[in-house]
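User: Sequence in, structure out. Go.
Assistant: Echoing your sequence, followed by the structure tokens.
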Amino acid sequence: MSILIVDDFEEQRELLAATLQQAGYRSLQFAGSAADALTRIGINTAAPSPDRVDIVLLDLHMPDMDGLEACRRIRAEERFEHLPVIIVTAKTEASDIKDAYNAGATDYIRKPVIPAELVARVSMAMSQKEEFDNRIERERELTEEAKQLGKTVQDLKTLRGTLCLCAKCKRVKTSSGLWQRLEDYLEEKLAAKITSAVCTRCTSDVTGAGGRR
């Protein structure tokens, strides 16, 4: 996962990067201003393929556009609703913290940064992002499966009354003229695994026949 470090002071960017690299994080990006950060994320740009950003470490006090405004603009985009934005700042007043969370910040770290705290907060945000991404992917898969199931049901409705079933071997004649096993045909159309078993009626018939012998 990629972490975007946003700070107008290069020394601060390098300090955060060194701490994260020591913790094993290698995919790091840098922005010296809030405007540059928004461009890298994919806001206010016509670039077809913005950089992938999974976590933003954002300073509050920057020229032109401060971190609060940048955070608000990120949250204004529905696609970035769950993008972790961790504020990293020397501003420690209660009002500053409140303003950061009201702007949509995920977490808040005070400067000077304690390395263990930075790594712990980033790790937590990373886990939450991965969990969210996995949930979104699963929802996408379920939606696709539902669409496929709906199409299959529609196909079966269309075929109703037109199936040609061999009276002897129970094979189905397909639209291409081939004879296909009934189990294979249903598996293909229903996208479901067909298993075999003996129903209670047939079991009773076999048992009864054995008893009559």
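User: And one key feature?
Assistant: Helices lie at 10-22, 34-41, 67-76, 94-102, 115-159, 182-190, 200-212.
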